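Students often ask why inverse folding is considered easier than folding. One informal answer: many sequences map to the same fold, so there is more than one right answer. In these notes we will look at a single instance of the problem. The structure comes first.
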């Protein structure tokens, strides 16, 4: 059994069957943090690095009572050693920022008549994160992206948000080949494995 440096900086042990063992990354919570960041940026229209850093500096995200059923407040138990998986967050944020027009067009086309401006803001934030993962970020399974977005929509959105997000992302998954063919060669398309040190692993 060998050890690889995981995407969260933890050592990930690899068994003979190639499956990861040992301490898992905090990808799910980091995805939730990213969704809340995208939600705020959508509300303000400010997708700048400065706005991102201001948001991430909010100590209430890392210190307090962590409640999985609460859509507000603390996400990470910093006192217990939890911390965001920053390489994933930085790559995903850059992907959303640099490809926002393409992502939003894919969401609108998949939503059967719903414009971006009419969508629930929490639903839109979850959709933007998942669509970015599905369209541009190799190494993240479409099913994982969809399932996590549905759970975030249920937590932060309204009645019917989970079903709505599931339907839109299902349509994007079926048609993403056409989206990528249309945007072939566009700068900013990200591969999570590209340019990373040999042996660095990207998980879902």
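Output (designed amino acids):
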């Amino acid at each position: 059994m060998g050890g690889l440096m995981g995407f969260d900086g933890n050592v990930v042990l690899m068994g003979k069957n190639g499956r990861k063992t040992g301490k898992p990354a905090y990808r799910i919570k980091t995805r939730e943090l990213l969704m809340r960041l995208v939600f705020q940026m959508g509300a303000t229209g400010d997708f700048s690095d400065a706005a991102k850093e201001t948001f991430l500096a909010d100590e209430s995200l890392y210190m307090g009572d962590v409640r999985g059923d609460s859509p507000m407040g603390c996400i990470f138990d910093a006192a217990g050693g939890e911390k965001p998986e920053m390489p994933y967050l930085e790559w995903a944020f850059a992907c959303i920022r640099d490809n926002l027009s393409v992502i939003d067009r894919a969401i609108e086309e998949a939503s059967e008549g719903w414009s971006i401006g009419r969508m629930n803001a929490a639903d839109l934030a979850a959709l933007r994160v998942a669509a970015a993962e599905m369209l541009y970020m190799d190494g993240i399974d479409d099913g994982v992206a969809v399932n996590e977005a549905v759970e975030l929509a249920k937590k932060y959105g309204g009645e019917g948000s989970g079903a709505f997000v599931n339907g839109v992302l299902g349509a994007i998954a079926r048609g993403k080949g056409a989206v990528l063919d249309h945007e072939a060669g566009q700068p900013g398309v990200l591969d999570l494995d590209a340019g990373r040190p040999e042996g660095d692993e990207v998980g879902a």
